[in-house]
Write a structure and sequence with these properties.
By secondary structure, the protein is α/β, with parallel strands linked by helices. It folds into 4 domains: 180 residues, MoaB/Mog-like domain (Molybdenum Cofactor Biosythetic Enzyme, Chain A, 3-Layer(aba) Sandwich); 58 residues, Molybdopterin biosynthesis moea protein, domain 2 (Alpha-Beta Complex); 84 residues, Molybdopterin biosynthesis moeA protein, domain 3 (Beta Complex), CATH 2.170.190.11; 72 residues, Beta-clip (Beta Barrel), CATH 2.40.340. Helix content is 20%, strand content 30%. The protein has 8 helices and 29 strands. The protein has a 6-stranded mixed β-sheet, sandwiched between helices. It is elongated, with a radius of gyration of 30 Å. The protein binds adenosine monophosphate (AMP) and magnesium ion (MG). The site of adenosine monophosphate has 20 residues, from helix 4.
Length: 421
Amino acid sequence: MKINEFLKDKGCLSEYDPNTMSYEKALMLLEQFLTVTKKTTHLPIEEAQGCFLAEDIRSPVNVPNYNNSAMDGYVFRHKFIKPKNNKFKIDGKILAGHPLKTKNSSISCLQIMTGGMIPRTFDTVIPQELVQINHGIVEFDFKPKVGANIRKIGEDIKKNQVAIKQGVCLNACNIGLLASLGITKVKVFQCIRIGFFSTGDEVVQLGSKIKAGQVYDSNRFLIKAFIKKMYACLVDYGNLSDDKILLENQLKKASRECDLIITTGGVSVGEADYMKEILTKIGQVLFWKMAIKPGRPMAFGKVNKAFYFGLPGNPVSAAVTFLQFVKPSIRFMMGSAKFEKLPYVQLKINAEVQRKKGRKEFVRGIIQRQGKSCSVIPLLQQGSGMLKSMSDANCFIVFDADQDLIRKNSYVNILPFDGII
Ligand code: AMP
Ligand code: MG
C-alpha cells in the first residue's frame, strides 16, 4: 500500500496515531509499507554470508551419498548375528575413502572406520568398544538392531529436496551445508543502498579538537558499524548542520541515490529540529513519535521512492530505534522471508524495578551466570545519551507498556545482544 493512500483512508487501522505509535503497531505498518528489493545477483558461496537467498536451494545429491559407518567398529550381516556367543573372523578393513573392492559373498565381518562405505548386503555396525578381539576374531554376546550405526544414503537430505529456502539470511552453517551439496554459487538479493547522515550544529568530527558545547559524532560511527555487520551498501553523507535548506537538499539527493535513508538528530520538538517539517514538505510522514523508551521521537516516511527513518540524536535512542525498527526493515527490504520479530528469552531479574506505565521500555542489562543458572541485572545508568552503559550491556531487558512493578526474581523478557552463529 502507498503511504498517501493510507493517510487518506485509515479505516483499515483503528487507533492510528502518528504522534504516539505503539511498538507493535509500528512494526505492523513497516511490514505493510516497505518493499523488497527485486534485484538479484549470483555470488560464490564464500562471499554470500549475510546475503538473503533469492531462490530455494534444491539438493543436487543425496547426503550422505552412500551408506556409511557412523562409528569405528565392525560391519556384519544382521541375519548371521546370534543373541549370544558371536565369533567372526575379521576378513579385511574398510577405511573412509577406500571402499571394499573385492567380491564379498564369502566375507562375514570387516573392520570399518567412521565414514567407511558399507559393502553391499552388509547392514549392521558394532562399535569397537563393544567387542573383544582375540587373534583376529571378533567376539560379542548380544544382537544389535538391524541397521545399527549406519548412516543411510539420503538420510540427511534427499536429492531434489529443498535444503535451504528463499529468504534465508546465509550464515556459516548454511554456507557449510551448501558446500556439502557441492554448490559453488547461489542466487541472492543484491544489497540495498542506504544513505546516512547525522545532523546537529553541536556535532563535530573526529580528529578535530572538541570545545565546550560540542559533541563528537558518535552516531555516525555507531550506525555505520551496525550497518557494516549487515553487508548492506552504505553511502555516508557525513554530518550536516541544522540548516533547513541544506537538510532538504541532502534528503532530496539521497532519495535519488538510495533505497533507504537514515538520519540522526533533529526529529524532536526543539527549535532546530527540522526533519519532520522537511519530510512533510518533500515527502510523506507515516509516524514520528513512538511509545517506547528510549527513542520517543522517531520518524518514518518516504521521500520520492526512498524510505526514510529519522532517528533521535541521543546515541542510545538512536541505537535502540535502529535495532528495533531499522534493522528488521533493512533485512526485510533485502529479501528476508518475513519481517522478523526478535525472539525473547526469559530470565529472572536480580533487582526490583518500579516504572511508569505507558511506553515499552528497552533497559540495558547484563546477563550473568551464577553456577548452573543465569539471571539478569539492569544497569544503573539508563540515560538516553549514555553510551557507556550501552557499551557495557550485553542485553536489553524489555518491559511492556502496561508493566509497572517488576519484582525481584520474577521472569522478564530479554533480548541478548549476541547470537552465537
Ligand atoms: P536532537 O535529537 O538533535 O535534539 O539531539 C539530541 C541529543 O543528542 C543532543 O544532546 C545532541 O547533542 C545529541 N546528538 C545529536 N546528534 C549526535 C551525534 N551525531 N553524536 C552524538 N550525539 C548526538
Ligand atoms: Mg539536533
